[in-house]
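Incident log, support desk, overnight shift.

02:14 A customer reports that sequence design results differ from what the structure should imply. Their input is reproduced verbatim below. On-call engineer (initials T.W.) acknowledged and began investigating.
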């Protein structure tokens, strides 16, 4: 029924309004029946990570995985049923007022960041996306805090710091498979051999495992590295003070309980990504130097690392084991071979020749958009254009295209 409603063109909807209204009335009953079915069978429906696919599972399994994740990371402290929101609002405003009185921030900045109406804020809540593309379907925690008391501070800091990080890490950070492909094609001209290895590395639970104190210090190291005293009128010391306050005050609700995040950052907070990226940047410098000195290729996209190197596999495994001892908070899990999948790019070393195609995760859902849907025509055309452009860029031979 929902599929049929989605597929009906706008003209049909306008010409057949009574029948559509009837379907809409039935829609409410359908939702109620689905909710009852889920509850009676102890079933839960959740969106999966990095795809538009939904996952059906048992509530008990979901709860068990959540408990295991919290126990493994030691990142969350349960506060029971006492709502921390009123106290957090008070402390946030007091902290900002103290900074204003000490002239660390201006009156305009104070008014921009403070909470003027308590009805405009609410505590964040935790939910999980299931990683259906990984064995065991692990969970990715998302702390949604669009109205969290510190969200305005977090957004401001991210606006100030993210462009600096992008500038600092421009030589080793990528944002798409096409960027990697361009670097890989150039590198392969003089470095690709029959025994060249491709290695993809996943950084386990990066956002959660980055320690808060050291994470904030990595932001300071970045500003020191770039020899900055202030950014857009805000002193670097003020930025560090505000960053520390944001990281130390991540509170959320989950399953009727309240929690305080005492390790890492909330994945829904804008500052968390920049801080995690910055922490990883300083962690990976020894690795990058080692790879570059060996004539290899190293790139990272947040918590995914790609390496192309002319080392024996045994030596590469040994080095990754050594890198895993650089920092107790960073754990690397690797895949090594003559082929690799990174972001949406599939790469193969075929007897010293580079072969590439588009990569689709196992959870990939081929359904995009019905042509007779109500979406604008240019959007439908752009989907086809984008897919064809990506195929032209990624496929290394006309035959595979």
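02:41 Re-run completed on a clean worker. Output:
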């Amino acid at each position: 029924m929902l599929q049929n409603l989605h597929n009906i063109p706008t003209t049909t909807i306008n010409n057949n309004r009574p029948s559509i209204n009837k379907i809409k009335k039935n829609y409410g009953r359908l939702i109620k029946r689905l909710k009852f079915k889920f509850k009676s069978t102890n079933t839960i429906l959740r969106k999966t990570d990095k795809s538009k696919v939904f996952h059906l599972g048992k509530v008990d399994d979901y709860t068990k995985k959540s408990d295991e994740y919290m126990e493994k990371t030691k990142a969350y402290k349960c506060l029971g049923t006492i709502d921390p929101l009123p106290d957090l609002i008070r402390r946030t405003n007091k902290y900002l007022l103290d900074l204003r009185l000490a002239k660390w921030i201006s009156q305009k900045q104070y008014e921009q960041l403070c909470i003027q109406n308590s009805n405009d804020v609410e505590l964040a809540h935790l939910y999980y996306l299931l990683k259906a593309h990984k064995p065991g379907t692990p969970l990715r925690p998302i702390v949604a805090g669009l109205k969290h008391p510190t969200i305005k501070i977090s957004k401001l800091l991210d606006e100030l710091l993210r462009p600096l990080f992008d500038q600092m890490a421009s030589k080793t950070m990528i944002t798409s498979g096409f960027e990697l492909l361009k670097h890989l094609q150039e590198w392969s001209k003089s470095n690709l051999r029959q025994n060249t290895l491709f290695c993809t590395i996943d950084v386990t639970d990066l956002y959660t495992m980055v320690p808060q104190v050291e994470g904030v210090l990595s932001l300071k190291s970045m500003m020191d590295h770039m020899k900055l005293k202030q950014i857009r009128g805000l002193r670097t010391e003020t930025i560090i003070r505000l960053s520390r306050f944001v990281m130390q005050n991540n509170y959320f609700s989950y399953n009727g309980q309240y929690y305080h995040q005492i390790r890492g950052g909330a994945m829904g907070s804008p500052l968390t990504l920049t801080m995690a990226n910055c922490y990883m940047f300083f962690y990976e410098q020894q690795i990058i130097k080692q790879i570059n000195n060996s004539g290899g290729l190293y790139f990272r996209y947040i918590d995914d690392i790609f390496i192309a190197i002319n080392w024996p596999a045994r030596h590469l495994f040994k080095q990754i084991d050594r890198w895993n001892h650089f920092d107790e908070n960073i754990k690397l899990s690797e895949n090594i071979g003559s082929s690799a999948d990174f972001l949406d790019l599939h790469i193969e070393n075929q007897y010293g020749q580079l072969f590439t195609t588009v990569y689709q995760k196992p959870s990939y859902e081929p359904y995009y958009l019905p042509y007779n849907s109500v979406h604008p025509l240019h959007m439908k055309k752009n989907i086809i254009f984008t897919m064809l452009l990506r195929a032209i860029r990624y496929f290394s031979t006309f035959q595979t295209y």
